[in-house]
Design goal:
Radius of gyration of chain B: 13 Å
Number of strands of chain B: 11
Number of domains of chain A: 1
CATH architecture of chain A: Sandwich
Largest interface: A-B, 23 and 21 residues
Number of helices of chain A: 0
Number of domains of chain B: 1
Order of helices and strands of chain B: EEEEEEEEEEE
Distance between the termini of chain B: 41 Å
CATH class of chain B: Mainly Beta
CATH architecture of chain B: Sandwich
Structural class of chain A: mainly beta
Structural class of chain B: mainly beta
Order of helices and strands of chain A: EEEEEEEEEEE
Oligomer: heterodimer
Helix content of chain B: under 10%
Number of helices of chain B: 0
Number of strands of chain A: 11
Strand content of chain B: over 45%
CATH topology of chain A: Immunoglobulin-like
């Protein structure tokens, strides 16, 4: 299955600033997914990123707050903009596995906003 | 709205016993259901997928059942080991969309 390199693994950011999270996949994939996992909560899908088109955002998430880039079939970025403490969470990217179903996840970015 | 329920309390079992985790869903007719393992500070790791037309699936010490009438999946780990201690997430899914439960924390006691 695919291997995903996600960075940074963690960061502490000031309120009002932005952080860009990167995900690199070792194979070409059509769709990449971005999730948020708040403490003690389940994973919530933020958006689906397709190469060559705008990302599709889930209800409650908007492009101005979480702009996504997908310049090629192996790479994507998620930016958390104008951060507030409520954005403190773990952010994960994932891709579908090629065989057997399921999704492969990056190791996550633990974001703390102070 | 769709709702996924997993045992919210941690499950503690003795090493060597069978652990059984439950996933119930409502307002939903998933085409398949996935199970993941998540360790602290790590992303989820895919374990098994079972489709709506399958009653049971096995992989080594893992067994998953899927009852579409009861809207329930059971996840079993036989001969449990301390290394199986983790949070286990169920994730019912349909076309290109998967929804995750909050997970059940399993602690296997030596």
């Amino acid at each position: 299955s695919a291997v995903i390199s996600q960075k940074p693994s963690r960061d502490i950011c000031q309120r009002g600033t932005s952080l860009t999270i990167q995900c690199q996949v070792d194979s070409q994939v059509t769709m990449m997914f971005w999730y948020r996992q708040q403490p003690g909560q389940s994973l919530t899908l933020i958006a689906t990123a397709n190469q060559g088109s705008e990302a599709t955002y889930e209800s409650g998430f908007v492009i101005d707050k979480f702009p996504i880039s997908r310049p090629n079939l192996t790479f994507s970025t998620l930016t958390v903009s104008n951060m507030s403490p409520e954005d403190s969470s773990i952010y994960l990217c994932s891709v579908e596995t090629n065989t057997g179903g399921g999704y492969t996840f990056g190791s996550g970015t633990r974001l703390t906003v102070v | 709205s769709q709702k996924i329920e997993q045992n919210s309390e941690a499950l503690n079992i003795q090493e060597g016993k069978t652990a059984t985790l439950t996933c119930n869903y409502t307002n939903y007719s998933p085409a398949y259901l996935q199970w993941y393992r998540q360790d602290p500070g790590r992303g989820p790791v895919f374990l098994l997928l079972i489709r709506e037309n399958e009653k049971e699936k096995r992989k080594e010490r893992l067994k998953v059942t899927f009852d579409t009438t009861l809207k329930q999946s059971l996840f079993h780990i036989t001969a449990s080991q301390p290394a199986d201690s983790a949070t286990y997430l169920c994730a019912p899914g349909g076309y290109q969309k998967v929804t995750f439960g909050t997970g059940t924390k399993l602690q296997v006691i030596p």
